[in-house]
Automatic annotation (TrEMBL):
GO MF, any single term: RNA binding
CDD domains reported in the protein's UniProt record: PUA_NSun6-like (cd21150)
Name this polypeptide is given: SAM-dependent MTase RsmB/NOP-type domain-containing protein
Residues the entry annotates as binding S-adenosyl-L-methionine: 291-297, 315, 342, 444
Keywords assigned: Methyltransferase, RNA-binding, S-adenosyl-L-methionine, Transferase
Family of the protein in this entry: Belongs to the class I-like SAM-binding methyltransferase superfamily. RsmB/NOP family.
Active site: 495 (nucleophile)
Domain annotation SAM-dependent MTase RsmB/NOP-type: ranges: 198-575
């Protein structure tokens, strides 16, 4: 009821302001898409010192817009680029995507003038990546920004649905407007009505925090498209799920491939695909993906390994581990082993006696389960077979197996593997891993995500919050160093433009661990890293890269001609830890 009252007051304020208090303005200014990111002053000053005022202004504008293309990774173990292109073209044809989106083309940084992708994208809506080694990556062309006629008439503004900022960002990436994302709606909206869709951005509240303000109606330049209401206003606020607005006239338009060709393709940002290549995984190796969810880089690595070897994927969330399992199953990848584990607790100290007992117990249980499975198929007595197998395992030097373990094995033989043993059902916890136990380690670290696009709000980002991310990342990197073997490789990556989480981490790694050295990456399509340092008002100095190191890392600038998200990749070779 409170929400309904707030929305009523909001709409009443909008109607009153449109006739009395709002100054006259050009409708093309209000009903347009021209957002401005508003940064915390300290954060803005920090980034201006890193990039320069003009460059940072261009980066900020680029962050408010999606890339001009979607990037599709083909599962080469199940299909080919040519076969996928043929299928996707048919899907685009069925959906009627014509690329003009009923509007005039506007201008913006994502028009990609001068981009190496520009010429390729002129050859058709879907093209293969021309970067050597990435021919299995497809680019799907989008269009925008478009100038949309919202049907404004003086004194009679168009019917409107106001959505939350996160919903708006999803719509800009190609999603529909779903019921939970709707914040407010004009009066008298009925099913089938054409409505303008605008974004409500968080505003500072009296307590100093940020929240959607139902009385805040200034949305100039925050209109993201037009669509058809799928339900009335009354129905909209009674429903708890479903599509609220079918977006058919968008400011940015990209073909949607949600739930399309599952197992054959995966939508993934280009820098993330490059990260898997930088790790250079080889068949038969033991590799660790420390922060693996949702599984995009994990499955990319598995495919580069030809699904041969062991790829351990970690996340501390039960549900996220299940997401990795589901994606691996869809792609028919068997070399991936998932565990629920906080990576800050990833080190397990070696105890020789325990190690022997664990291995023997595991082998004996696996022995009697495999034998019992075979016996079931041949019609043997299950209980006796299970007990005999365990007895034989113990006589042959295996560790003691309890009666409880025997009973569990019997139930599995009688009833099958069960839901908890099926892919996506059971999540294994891990006690950690011994030092020096992996050939390669990927740390795609949780970060401030200030490179993700589109982004309509940055007000909550502070210098303190950026420092907390950097501190957490260093602790995770310490774990990675202990887990990788001498002669191995560590790849560190983030999706942020913050040098404190990127170049400063590299500086920490090289200064702290003298046996680490920066390694070259292939392919190299990103730009160089930032050289220098930043001195804060309190005298604290943050060191970045030194001359000569910048060409070893890859920094993806969201305002560059590649038109990607903001991203960073560093690769380290691990020397002898005894030196």
């Amino acid at each position: 009821m409170k929400k309904a009252r707030d929305l009523h007051l909001l709409l009443k304020t909008i109607r009153r302001s449109s006739t009395t208090t709002t100054p006259k303005m050009d409708p093309s200014d209000r009903y347009s898409f021209s957002p401005i990111l508003r940064w915390d002053p300290e954060v803005e000053n920090y980034f201006i010192k890193a990039y320069g005022a003009d460059h940072f202004s261009i980066i900020s504008k680029a962050l408010t817009r999606p890339s001009s293309y979607s990037c599709v990774r083909v599962n080469t173990l199940k299909s080919t680029s040519d076969a996928v292109i043929e299928k996707l073209l048919e899907i685009i044809k069925e959906k009627g995507f014509d690329g003009d989106c009923h509007g005039k083309e506007g201008s913006g940084p994502n028009e990609n003038v001068g981009s190496p992708l520009e010429e390729s994208l002129k050859n058709g809506p879907i093209v293969k990546c021309q970067i050597p080694g990435l021919e299995y990556v497809l680019f799907v062309k989008g269009t925008g920004p478009h100038m949309i006629d919202y049907g404004y008439v003086p004194g009679a503004p168009p019917k409107e649905v106001i959505v939350g900022r996160k919903c708006a960002e999803a719509v800009l990436r190609g999603a529909q407007v779903f019921v939970p994302g709707v914040m407010a709606c004009s009066a008298h909206v009925e099913k089938g009505d054409t409505v303008a869709v605008s974004a409500a951005i968080e505003q500072r509240n009296p307590n100093g925090g940020w929240a959607f303000d139902p009385y805040y109606f200034e949305r100039n330049g925050l209109y993201i498209g037009q669509g058809t209401a799928t339900m009335s206003r009354a129905g909209l606020f009674r429903a708890s799920e479903g599509i609220a607005v079918d977006m058919n006239n968008r400011v940015f338009r990209l073909p949607s491939f949600y739930d399309v060709l599952e197992g054959e393709i995966f939508l993934q940002n280009l820098p993330s695909i490059v990260t898997a290549h930088a790790l250079d995984p080889q068949k038969g190796e033991r590799i660790l993906d420390m922060c693996a969810a949702p599984g995009g880089k994990t499955t990319a690595i598995a495919i580069l390994m030809k699904d041969e070897g062991e790829l351990v994927a970690l996340d501390r969330s039960h549900n996220k581990v299940q997401d990795i399992q589901k994606l691996a199953a869809e792609m028919s990848l068997t070399c991936i082993t998932t565990y629920k584990l906080d990576v800050l607790k990833a080190i397990r100290q070696r105890n020789e006696a325990d190690d022997i007992n664990i291995n023997q117990s595991s082998n004996s249980l696996r022995f009697h389960e495999e034998k019992a499975s075979s016996s079931t198929a041949e019609g043997f007595n299950l209980d006796k077979t299970c007990e005999d197998n365990v007895s034989n395992a113990i006589e042959n030097g295996g560790a003691y197996v309890s009666k409880a373990d025997i009973r569990k094995a019997k139930r599995r033989m009688r009833n099958g593997s069960g839901r908890n043993q099926c892919v996506g059902g059971r999540v294994e916890n891990s006690k950690g891993f011994y030092p020096d136990s992996f050939d390669r380690v990927l740390l795609d670290a949780p970060c401030s995500a200030l490179g993700l696009r589109p982004r309509l709000f940055t007000g909550e980002v502070t210098i303190d919050s950026l420092k907390k991310h950097a501190t957490y990342q260093r602790r995770m990197f310490d774990q990675a160093v202990k887990l990788v073997r001498p002669g191995g490789v560590i790849v560190y990556s983030t999706c942020t433009i913050n040098p404190g989480e990127n170049e400063a981490l590299v500086r920490y790694a090289l200064d702290t661990y003298k046996f680490l050295s920066l390694a070259s990456q292939n392919p190299r399509i990103g730009g160089p890293g930032l050289v220098g340092s930043f001195e804060s008002a309190n005298g604290r100095t943050e060191e970045w890269l030194r001359p000569g190191e910048e060409e070893f890392v890859q920094r993806f600038d969201p305002s560059s001609s590649l038109d990607t998200i903001g991203f960073f990749i560093a690769k380290f070779s691990v020397g002898s830890k005894d030196a």
